[in-house]
Amino acid sequence: MKHFTYLKNVSTLNLDQGACIGCGRCIEVCPHSVFRPSGKKVAVQSRDLCMECGACARNCPSAAVRVSAGVGCASGLITEWLSEIRFFRGTRSGGC
Amino acid sequence: MPGFTGWLDTPAGRVARIGSTLRLRDHFGAWKARWGIGRMSYLVPPGLYAIGEPRPEDPVVVTANYKMSFDIVRQALAGRRLWLLVLETHGINVWCAAGKGTFGTDELVGRIQATRLPEVVNHRRLILPVLGAPGVAAHLVKAQTGFTVRYATARAADLPTYLDAGMVASAQMREPTFTFRERLVLIPVELVGAIPLVLAISVVLFLAAAFGTGVFTPSAGWTAVTAFFGAVAAGVVATPLLLPWLPSRSFAVKGAFAGLIWSFLLYLLLDGASWDSTTTLAAFFCIPAVSAFYALNFTGCTPFTSISGVKKEMRISIPAMAAAVAVGALSWLTDTVIKLLS
Lengths: 96, 342
Fold this sequence. Notes:
Chain A is α+β, with helices and mostly antiparallel strands. Chain A is 22% helix and 12% strand. Chain B has two domains: 4-176, Rossmann fold; 181-341, no CATH class. In chain B, helix 10 runs antiparallel to helix 11 and helix 13 runs antiparallel to helix 14.
């Protein structure tokens, strides 16, 4: 994935190091190696690679990681917006 | 049942044994799903399956009930003894189902209970695909069932290496790839999905261009439709294939760039120097806007775009696309009205 990096400075990822217990689950689940071990805790090493999938936050037993998770899919968002308009209600997503 | 080879008796009842060899029918089914044919009903029943002759101490691998996922996993595990726990994701792959939450904690916990897995195996370990992690909270699964979740690899093909290495995944094995081939196979379903809107716009475009001169000129209509098809192809086909080489991190910009190349090609092929200003404006404003729109739609197919990034792109690029199309359409409208009046 070295060739692929998305927009900079957009990720909502937030790690509360005070709450981190250093279990390393976030390192294990992150597909883009956003985290690294830092002493007995974990640190964010490459925030711009975060795709906000939410795996780290969901698997953090101490709720130290927070991220506004979702799927980075424009057609999904367009479908969502259209379904909010009465006329298009009932429009289904692409089934991804 | 795909790959069914017989039954295996366990303390929790009989379990279907499945083979690891994909047949012609499986390959044809995958091909059809890639083209969007029956894709939403391409699934296998959820539950517990046996690969080889698994014993109580053998590992349990968890996957989704999208048949293509099921097939890829069982093929990757050829020649091994394993339990395969298939979750009900309604025929959706692991990554997308995890995003929606159907490949999730509740389904996993429920499926462990429904299959009476604790009676079948004598250990308490589950192997999950790493791309399933957005839906599953490992600590909650542990608390509710006693099973420890280990997140393995992104690709099923790396599972044998992972298992042989004593269940250790390198960073490389956890990272999804997005090779030329992996991008190529996604294009058919995107093309099929684009058909209804593209056809509707083509009809309007054909009539507008053919009647725009005041006299019905089918050739003008076909030219406009060809230009439009090319703009769609630049976004749906060229942008995904050329993704690493197109400039910018933004998909809309990448698409606009691919569209602009098509505008220049048309200019060269169709003697652009002889075009009137309206045609030139339409070619260089509308085409990149259309390509950018379709390129932006590809964000959902990639394993590296974030929702915050996509929202940011949309906030900036959609008004820009609308403005570009408006420039082309307004200039055409003005031109046509002038022609018809004179």
